Amino acid sequence: MKKILILGSTGSIGTSALELIRNNREQYQVVGISGNKNIDLIREQIKEFSPTSIYVGLEKDAEDLKKEFSFIEKIYFGENGLAELAKNSDYDIILTAVSGAVGIDATVEAIKREKRIALANKETMVAAGVYINRLLRQYPKCELIPVDSEHSALFQSLQGFNKKNARKLIITASGGTFRGKKTDDLKNVTVEQALKHPNWSMGKKITIDSSTLVNKGLEVIEAHELFGFDYDDIEVVVHPQSIIHSMVEYEDGSIISQLGVPSMKTPILYAFTYPEKEFNKSIDFLSFVNSNSLTFEEPDRETFRGIDLAYRAGRTGQTMPAVFNAANEIAVDLFMKGKIKFLDIYQIIEKVMNGHQVLSLDGDDALEIIKKVDKETRKKVREQWER
Ligand code: NDP
Ligand code: MG
User: Fold this and answer.
1) How far, in Å, CA of 175 to CA of 242, rounded?
2) What is the pLDDT of residues 264-302, one digit of tens each?
3) Most exposed: 48, 145, 369, 381, by fewest CB within 10 Å?
4) Which helix (H) or strand (E) holds 65?
């Protein structure tokens, strides 16, 4: 029986994970879950899975739930609550599926306890990857298994081969909702339009990120941090059908890839079962004969500036990826609230990056510096653009 702790159980990844567990109750026990504001759903999840450790955003909600469910042993809330949940609960695997850099501290706690981390929360790897990698070297028994579909594909395509023989990583991108559009077409697009993703059903923030291609940019940095490839050896290719989830090219000309229907259940399941590959009845299987043809094209980097801004942030390194990520998180929030236009997201990221004085993360205070820069960037963007 594997004991699972799910951060972000009320989200898109979190509910997919619970669906997998629902179909295999003999093998998995949900020991802890976390939501933020969706209390109705977390209540349902507590009823169904009887976890004993919980996190919710507000103290009042935490108190109410504690009174309602006597079997809850510990309920956390507020700023340090997620990290406390990861630090104190009894689990084998933690799925980090909160949205945003808010997941950093909890991930750090799980590494220090040398747990298996099923990492969906890419923002943590982008903002704090340098520090996380250093910590992973100190805690070598920790297993960090990527859940992001592209990174799960890369992880699988690197299995069994010598990484030194790999020439490059090829990350596939659907191209997002606005594939084929030009800057002029994007000036007045609405939140509703941006939230219509052609292939994937996901949380709102990542769906907007997919429409700007900032998501692909975040994934390039995530791949660099997870697999240690130079930015020159990480390529992005648009593959609108989202069947090939990413590829690794080797010295002998072979390209190894992982394919499947566009569903997050397979990568979540693999992070739970690695190195095994197990059946789950909620998994959908790919039919080649019923699939459309698989096509590929260059990303339009001029229109969708999110990719190149990310390469720039990644190549600059140190605190710049944290700035890229934080500026984007707040810009997306402002766009969703109708306070800025779609293309302003790029302007904001670029302006904030231009104004950032890069700080070194070489010292022991790296995590504090990352968190300070993250906080200051959020404040700066809100002050300048929130009206
Ligand atoms: P959702 O927006 O659907 O869910 C986010 C979850 O995080 C919810 O449980 C939400 O709680 C919780 N949450 C949000 N803000 C906070 C906060 N400040 N403190 C604590 N908890 C918070 O996101 P997704 O499931 O789509 O994505 C989760 C992560 O996985 C992201 O990092 C994303 O980039 C990554 N990912 C997602 C994919 C997908 O297909 N969805 C694919 C690849 C990666 P509540 O709803 O209760 O307020
Ligand atoms: Mg992805």
Assistant:
1) 9
2) 999 999 999 999 999 999 999 999 988 879 999 999 999
3) 48
4) helix 59-68
pTM for this model (two decimals): 0.98
Q: Is the dihedral of CA 313, 318, 321, 323 positive or negative?
A: negative
Cα separation, 273 vs 261, whole angstroms: 19
Pocket test for ligand 1, best of 77, 95, 98, 216 (most atoms within 8 A of CB): 98
Reported residue count of the chain is 387
Nearest alpha carbon, ligand 1 atom 39: 202
Residues whose beta carbon lies within 6 Å of some atom of ligand 1: 8-14, 35-38, 57, 82, 97-99, 102, 120-123, 148, 200, 202-206, 264
Nearest CA to ligand 1 atom 43: 148
The segments of the chain whose pLDDT lies below 70 read none
140 CB-side CA count, 13 A: 1
Return the pLDDT at 199: 84
Q: Which atom of ligand 1 is nearest to the CA of 264?
A: 40
d(Cα 130, Cα 314) in Å, to the nearest integer?
11
Q: What's the CA gap between 182 and 194, in Å, rounded? A: 14
Q: Per residue in 52-71, pLDDT tens? A: 999 999 999 999 999 999 99
Atom 26, ligand 1: residue with shortest CA distance? 203
Q: Is there a contact between 263 and 284 (Cβ–Cβ < 8 Å)?
A: yes
User: Which are the contacts of 302, defined by CB distance < 8 A and separation ≥ 6?
Assistant: 183
Q: Is 314 left (phi over 0), alpha (psi -120 to 50) or beta?
A: alpha
Which two tokens mark 131? 């520090």
In the prediction, which pLDDT does 125 show? 98
Q: What is the model's pLDDT at position 387?
A: 79
